[in-house]
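QUALITY CONTROL LOG
STEP: pairwise intake check
CHECKER ROLE: data steward
CRITERIA: each record must contain a sequence immediately followed by its structure tokens, with no blank fields

ENTRY 1 OF 2
RESULT FIELD BELOW
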Amino acid sequence: MNEDTIYLKQLEIGPMQNFVYLIGDKESREAAVVDAAWDIDAILKAAQADDMKITKAFVTHFHPDHIGGDMLGFPIEGLSELLEKHPVKIYVQKSEAPFLKNLLGLSDSDMVQISGGDKTSLGNIDVQFLHTPGHTPGSQCFLVENRLISGDTLFINGCGRVDLPGSDPEEMYYSLTTKLQKLPDDTLLLPGHNYGGKTSTMGKEKKHNPYLRFQRLEDFLGAMGYR
């Protein structure tokens, strides 16, 4: 794949420093939006300004700051508004689908339920779905060539919380060590929040991210407060 054909735009939107991504194929002009939330009009305008057509929506996990809905009484724009303004299929890890139904009222016909290892295409570009549970049961990352959109699984010098309903610190450890840590060092890391910067590489994270340096599950659990 010619790297010059990959389209990527990182948008920081909302008070929680969320990153929304547009990823696609410059030749076909097809793109997907990742974690469409906070300001749907701004996301659609960004794609339009680059002459890209959003044909799919990818979800890293079900928390309202990534999909919209109600967060402690505060309404957040998200997938419901996207479907009203620009109908597309929502690609969600199958164990997250019930949450999208309950929280947003999405139907089975709105969603494409996927498993880890599945792929989809945007024009001539392949996107691989990596199931990385821990932050939520169906958290997933998206691998496009050497670019990893990691949601709330892996941050720059950090990882997602594991003390929330549905979180599992043991699952997080294995997602980090048996899946993400095995990616090549030159893989570009694109996190779900601007908590430690906009981008990094897996090589840098393997050297400096403390959550990728534990050799034993017991040590990881201890560092996370589970002894």
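ENTRY 2 OF 2
RESULT FIELD BELOW
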Amino acid sequence: MAVAHFASAEGTAARAQAATAARGLAAGAYRPLGRTGLTVSAVGFGGYRVDDGTPQHRAALEQALAAGVTLIDTSSNYTDGGSETLIGAVLAQHPALRDGTVLVSKVGYVQGRNMELAQEARRRGDPFPDMVEYHPQCWHCIHPRFLADQLQRSLERLALPALDVYLLHNPEYFFADWTQRTPAGGLGAARDTFYRRCTDAFAELERQAQRGRLGWYGVSSNSFGEAAETAEFVSLERLLEAARNAARQVHGGAPRLAVVQCPLNLFESGPAIEPNQSGGRTFLEVARAEGLGVLVNRPLNAIRERRLIRLADRLAPRPDHAENAEQALVDLEGLETDFAQRFRSSIAALLPPEAGPREPFDWATQMRTLLPHLESMEGWQQLVQQQLYPQIQQALGAATKALHGTKALDQLERWTQAYAMALQNLSRAIQEHVAHTEYGQAVALRDRLTALVPESWRALTLSEMALRAAATVPGVTCVLNGMRRAEYVRDSLGALAGVPLDGAEGLAVLKGWR
């Protein structure tokens, strides 16, 4: 069977009707995606951390589709293109689902392979214009030439001739870069430049839609809910004006900007509450008035004061977690002291300058300081990936080089094996410690949320209540949740079951929470 080019109004409505009948879902489990004519599930598959090399990711996506999820969200930079490749492979295996499944991807980030592409273009003397070099490892671009290049690459990874929805992905990086550089002209001039670039980008997307390569387009921004005076604020009304101008330039008709995306959760409620549009309206109020489909992300991963708060139940930790962490630190400390006594003088000359006067292995000391401040598993994993392992590998490389050809190298190898085992023990102990912190947070969050939600919700898990709260805010079409594991799929689908999702309970919960 050939794979359909686009999702269709008939196909998406048929899938919604079949799933509702099969699972006995209540009203609101499926909604119109704004003015597109398409129907989508109230909870969508978020493809942020899935890739084509992990079998459980494929299984989770197939499970979600089989259970009636009819919208998939991904991006060109998710797992460096692996997310799009996985989704394309699964849809190719299930071609009958394409007609009834809305596929959304995003564009703008320049990382990984895209960074290599951009740097190679620069070396050739033909760089992509209007590149925002926000960070050495993260650039951003929405120039028409870059969009055309990226759409082609996304379609190739998805193994599809066309895409239902294509979103500019966090274009507010322009403002983040501007605030770092603080050029002449002030914020007003910066905003004029930004919306001019958006107009140019929309004109390219209008042309791509005319060519039959995409159905609709829009913007995904983390700044839609910010106060209007905030430097990185993105105005939905000015984007709509830019889209109308772009459509007039290209074909003279109505623009195909029809979908927008933003974070929305208990702690980031700005899109529903902040009056940052004309007439004191909120982002969601303008989106509803303009007939836009609204996708919301991060329903369970709230960011508050640069700290991640996970809105999900946690298992109670082992009662001896504190003793285990202390013993693991003592064991690691002993090995690090042993290293300093036996090898420090031998490798001092080859240590990297940034090591300074401190010992190359002093993680026990550092962890004693950091442990009280670790509040999430994500924070620990970030510390391990970005600091601990790279520095340990660097120091071990220097030690091995210094001791090459000496009898001490054998001793170093035995020490390294013991140190690796001690690090594993410490990692497990710290995860238990973090679980204790997260468990306490989850209990407190659940108690607070339970007092705000309707009686019929109170048997749900914390994550199901948080998903249902986001899904019942007026103006929200689909809540995107990461479903890379089977249990995450079950949790997401639990939010669709039971009581109707077509009320306004979520807005009352957000206002009560604030």
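INTAKE CHECK: passed for both entries
DESCRIPTIVE NOTE, ENTRY 2: The chain has a mean pLDDT of 89.
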